[in-house]
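User: I'm preparing a small set of examples for a lab meeting where we compare how different chains pack in three dimensions. I only have the primary sequence for this one, and I'd like the structure in token form so I can line it up with the others. Please keep the answer compact; I'll paste it straight into my notes.
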Amino acid sequence: MRVAVGVLSFLCLVSVGHAVPNQALQREFKKTWDLERKALEHQSAVALRQHRTAQKAQSKEWRNKERSERHAFFAAHMSGKERREYVQNYLERKEKFEKAQEQGSLDLSQDWATKRKLFKERRMNAEIQFNAAVLEKRDPPIEVWPAGKAPSPANNSPEQQPNAEPSPGTP
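Assistant: Understood. Below is the structure token output for the 171-residue chain.
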């Protein structure tokens, strides 16, 4: 409810026609969070793709190993009873392997879902704090920006001003 009230009050001011202060800052804020979201989505896609590739390689390796073991076993054991027992054990091992792979995929998907949920909560809280600061006509705190993405303050040092005298020791 608190989240909805903060965003709703900001949207009401905008829709009534009040001038929104610091529009450039708001655009930059939204842009940095959108870029952060896209980066998270990209990381998620890459991690899932790498996981699938690794699982395919593991599966291929497992099948090749089992095939060579099966051929060696069948060459050494001609009895139908021994072979049936081996095949039953093989099917159990195969089922266990496939379940382990499914569980690995499920765990990875759940981890990324949790990361996306935490990101969404962080962004929502940051938007509330940002909009509150803007409405109070003060600079938003640095904590509301994604990590390392806060805008750099205007640098008014003499070195940055075009007509300033060079500082001693600089050519």
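A couple of notes for your slides: The chain has a mean pLDDT of 82. The two ends are 60 Å apart (CA to CA).

User: Perfect, thanks.
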